[in-house]
């Protein structure tokens, strides 16, 4: 099974979750996801997902000048984003436990 | 091939943009707005080329297309700009094809790669041009500026301005990729204006270097005989010499003035012979009562009355009096001394 296929469905949720505790810029968020274990997540996918979530009104952005490089665009969850995170999180938990149950049944069957 | 990290990023963004060529321009601009900064972070964080770490720009574009979706990217409202954008997209697509086809000519995958390498050279040239334009606007000394951005004819100012212009342009060039849409457009517009000014300057410099013998040589000032219209020769007694001919030391006839006359009633006569004066009526020393009908006989009949006076003194005292030539010796007035001259 290809994890990249699975990632496509949950990348939105993953990005929202990565921003739950701390704001971050694009590359920062990518690193958080990889550190958390989503090692196959692609750079372009995260960049594109952040743009899309922002356009959907779930994120706010602000620019922080950086001493050693270009300025950084930080993304932050807004209330709509937090609500979406909660809602999608529930959906995921339901889905995951269904899948777990399904797999367990098959294994024990 | 690739000179700096910034160039690499530019190339990568360019290729991603090209791969998204079918998207509406506004959506594409918005989607790629932060990509240069983002790639700069990526590039700063590890080893290896962007292509090694992120895959080909085309694959990157495909990922981007899928993950970004079209949220917020409702089709642009139909308008007059649509047609323009469509034409531009078609032109850009053709340019991309030409870009790839011409690549081998420059020993690169794409011709644009070669052009990107020429960029620093353009920055330097742009700095020079900006300095020249600035000097041209600030300089009010009235002296020709030349090929350096002189202000008030000062070479030191020119070199300072040149250095500032070139360094500033390079700084701007290295930053330009991070500029947002409008500042970047302004920069492009400024560059176009500079190029036009430079073309104008080049053409005028070219024509002035080709046409040097004809350009602005100011005869009025450099040649004291420039405004001579006619020549009047008087003998020792102050009589006007009619039909005089003048020669230089080589026996070549001297040609001065304008070979035509306007008489007092304004009639124009072309002068046929090369003898002076052309217009005897315009004798500057003629008596006020003399008219255009005055003849040589009348004029010479009143020596001193209407001539310049006998033997005008030469300013440097060493000159030869006009009456000397027929005399065998300088002291022609005293024949008793002349045997020594033989």
From TrEMBL, chain A:
<dbReference type="Pfam" id="PF03551">
    <property type="entry name" value="PadR"/>
</dbReference>
<protein>
    <submittedName>
        <fullName>PadR family transcriptional regulator</fullName>
    </submittedName>
</protein>
<feature type="domain" description="Transcription regulator PadR N-terminal">
    <location>
        <begin position="16"/>
        <end position="87"/>
    </location>
</feature>
<dbReference type="InterPro" id="IPR052509">
    <property type="entry name" value="Metal_resp_DNA-bind_regulator"/>
</dbReference>
<dbReference type="InterPro" id="IPR005149">
    <property type="entry name" value="Tscrpt_reg_PadR_N"/>
</dbReference>
<dbReference type="InterPro" id="IPR036388">
    <property type="entry name" value="WH-like_DNA-bd_sf"/>
</dbReference>
<dbReference type="InterPro" id="IPR036390">
    <property type="entry name" value="WH_DNA-bd_sf"/>
</dbReference>
